[in-house]
Write a structure and sequence with these properties.
By secondary structure, this protein is an alpha+beta fold. About 40% of the residues lie in helices and about 15% in strands. The protein has a single domain, classed as 60s Ribosomal Protein L30, Chain: A, CATH 3.30.1330.20. The longest helix has 21 residues. The termini are far apart.
């Protein structure tokens, strides 16, 4: 499987999953995710998938510090409805990384490891998403300002051409390169830029 080299340069997210440990899936329940895993889940790489991965990584770092985040013990609240804009796409990535689901997740064993009812929408939160530790109630609000990482001005016209009938192979290659470049800037050039990825501790 071939993919852009910069995918592997994006910081990974390492979590501890007690269910994975209990069922013997990973030694000590430690799971490592990279940006390429989010791309596999979505089936594509774009600013939305990149922002979902980036917001989750920064949010968990803020509420767990030097500790490994505990997958399945994180509540996630979205300000928007799941059908609004790209909220559903972001939610899919966040769910993969945190284990949080509305009502479709693992139902648990003897009252433990339940992954349901940890994700909600239309929440009264100030930014796009709130992440909360269920053990300590530490919480953080996050958002992303993708307009601050503008793509090449030729991208939009190239996309229209590639979606139409007048596209050639060179147009496709050029469009793909410009598209990848913006995602790379979001994830690497602005990975810890507080004006792009807004992270606010909540009380």
């Amino acid at each position: 499987m071939q993919y852009p080299d910069f995918f592997d340069a994006v910081p990974h997210l390492i979590l501890r999953d007690p269910l994975a440990k209990f069922l013997g899936a990973f030694e000590d329940g430690v799971i490592e995710y990279g940006y390429v895993d989010a791309v596999k889940l979505a089936g594509h790489s774009c600013p939305t998938v990149a922002s979902a991965y980036g917001m989750t990584r920064l949010a968990l770092g803020a509420i767990y510090g030097s500790q490994l985040p505990e997958r399945g013990a994180i509540r996630v609240e979205f300000r928007q409805d799941i059908l609004t804009g790209v909220t559903g796409v972001i939610a899919n990535v966040v769910s993969m990384l945190t284990g949080a689901t509305q009502d479709t997740g693992f139902k648990g064993l003897a009252g433990r490891f339940d992954r349901r009812h940890l994700m909600s929408f239309n929440a009264n939160v100030p930014l796009e998403i709130r992440f909360t530790r269920t053990d300590t109630d530490d919480k953080v609000d996050v958002a992303v300002n993708l307009q601050l990482v503008a793509g090449d001005p030729d991208t939009a016209s190239l996309m229209r051409r590639c979606l139409g009938n007048g596209c050639c192979a060179e147009d496709m290659r050029h469009f793909g390169a410009l598209w990848r470049d913006r995602v790379r800037h979001i994830l690497l050039g602005h990975a810890n830029d507080p004006s792009v990825f807004v992270v606010n501790r909540a009380s």
